Fold:
Amino acid sequence: MQSKNKTINAAITAVGMYVPDKVMDNKYFESIVDTNDEWIITRTGIKERRLMENGATSDMAAFAIQDLMKTSSLKPEEIDVIIVATVTPDMLFPATACLVQEKIGAKNAWGFDLSAACSGFLFALQTGASLVESGSYKKVVVVGSDKMSAITDYTDRNTCILFGDAASAVLLEPSEDLNYGIKDSLLYVDGSGRDALNMKAGGSLNPASHDTIDKKWHYIYQDGKAVFKVAVKGMADVSYEIMEKNGLKSEDVAYLVPHQANLRIIDATAERMGISKEKVMINIDKYGNTTAATIPLCLTEYYRAGKVKKGDNLILAAFGAGYTWGSIYLTWGLD
Ligand code: COA
Structure:
């Protein structure tokens, strides 16, 4: 929601990322399931993903925030809030945010986890922005971190080729110049999507048991075709809607920053927005779907490559389990 009488915007003032060293390329998947490089590239756009061999989601999140701190003036004790978007928390509780707080030494912070699957970063960014815009908090770290390998069934060719491990973080701070920062968001949930994409066991509905393990309910389940259909429409519609709402034409948008689940979903979204391929941030080929990490990972890589300039209008868009989906419009404020 865009507030009419805003006096400050929340703006991204630093970025950071972490991807594990270990690469799993399509050839590797040819050796473990009945698939091939050509099918994976043409149906998804993915060539490689990363695997976190030692460590958990909180480790990746901490590394990403440490990278952010190394490349900015932020000190750990200055952080007010840590929001961790994830569907692969280290444990159901305590929150991963607590573990991250301790690992980075953010001794004055509070924080929490936010679960919105592939839309997690967008939901967390809007939440963090609201905390900043309220005037109560000045330095909010939003990190998307997912160790998808922890919940992936590497005997299921329908899902195992899709996902990878990564984390990426942004710092939100107040900007009195309303030309910059987060300007609008359109976010949605629809629980009727629960049967198409989920991890059934380990929660209060199906506590972990021998039976849930036998049924492989501790892994991602996805009805790919069903999700594909709604994801294409959901992500394209919401991105178009936020442009219309804010009077943006395609030439006003410097980049679409889409969740990286499938290149065909990304292409359909760009087409609906009238945006050419050069103006779409893409790194799905290198990392696959890293769930809450995809969007900040794109932002960090493109910014560090000098491709995003101060004043650029960006449309962030995602679709994920729940269903959850949405779009955020922001103007880049970093030099
Ligand atoms: N290698 C080779 N063949 C595979 C395969 C793989 N890794 N995975 C599935 N197939 C087969 C299927 O078994 C099916 O074979 P069949 O026709 O004999 O049954 C065939 O390929 C086509 O499967 P289909 O599911 O129609 O493929 P698709 O074009 O829909 O692509 C996805 C599959 C998963 C890539 C695609 O559906 C998708 O991206 N879904 C949405 C993902 C998403 O956005 N998730 C939300 C955020 S997490």
